[in-house]
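2024-03-11 09:14:02 INFO receiving multi-entity request
2024-03-11 09:14:02 INFO entity count = two
2024-03-11 09:14:03 INFO echoing inputs for audit
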Amino acid sequence: DAMVIQNPRYQVTQFGKPVTLSCSQTLNHNVMYWYQQKSSQAPKLLFHYYDKDFNNEADTPDNFQSRRPNTSFCFLDIRSPGLGDAAMYLCATSATQGAYGYTFGSGTRLTVV
Amino acid sequence: GESVGLHLPTLSVQEGDNSIINCAYSNSASDYFIWYKQESGKGPQFIIDIRSNMDKRQGQRVTVLLNKTVKHLSLQIAATQPGDSAVYFCAESGGYQKVTFGTGTKLQVIP
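2024-03-11 09:21:47 INFO inference complete, emitting structure
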C-alpha cells in the first residue's frame, strides 16, 4: 500500500547532540511537510518542500533544518536538540500544495535527555 | 492573527450515543476544512472534509456541518463506539495554503 513511513518510531538523543529523523513516501507526492506536535497540542508546521523548493515557516527556529534528496525521502535535522524540542514529529505529504489529499506518517517521538 | 480553535478540550459520550465536536475558525478566506482523528501514538488520520461551497457532507457514521455565517464547523459521529476514542482536530486551509490545525478535542467513549 502507498504510504508515508517515518523512522524511527522512537528516538532518544542527548541534549545538544545532532539528530536526524527520516520520512519516506511511496505516493509520489510533490509536497512533503514536517510538523512538530507537543503533548496535548495541535501539530505545528515547521517547513515544507514543494518538489525541491524549500519553504520555511517564519517562526521555525534555525536549529531545525530539512533535506529532500529526492521525491521519496525527506529528512528533519535538529542541530542541537534542547529539552524543549522533545515532541512528536510528523511527516505529511500531498500531491499539490494545500490541504487536498494530506497523508500523515505515524510520527517519530523524540526524547531529549 | 487568524486562528482555528475548538470550544471543548474533552468530551465524554456514552457508547451508542451521538457525538458532536465543535470548532470555530476566524479566517474568512478559508475555503477548505478537514477533520482529523488522532489516536495515541499515531499520526492524524483523515476523517472527512468539506469545501466552503457546501454546508453539509456525510460519510460513514460521520457528518460535517459548515456554517460560514458564524464561522463554525462541527463533526457529528453517529452511534459512538469505543474505537472512536481519540483526539479530534479540525483544520482549515485557504486555497493552496498550509493547513492550520485547531487545538483538538479529546473524545472519551464510556462503555
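2024-03-11 09:21:48 INFO post-check: Chain A touches chain B at residues 4, 6, 33, 40-45, 48, 57, 90, 92, 96-100, 102-107, 109 (CB under 8 Å).
2024-03-11 09:21:48 INFO post-check: The two ends of chain A are 36 Å apart (CA to CA).
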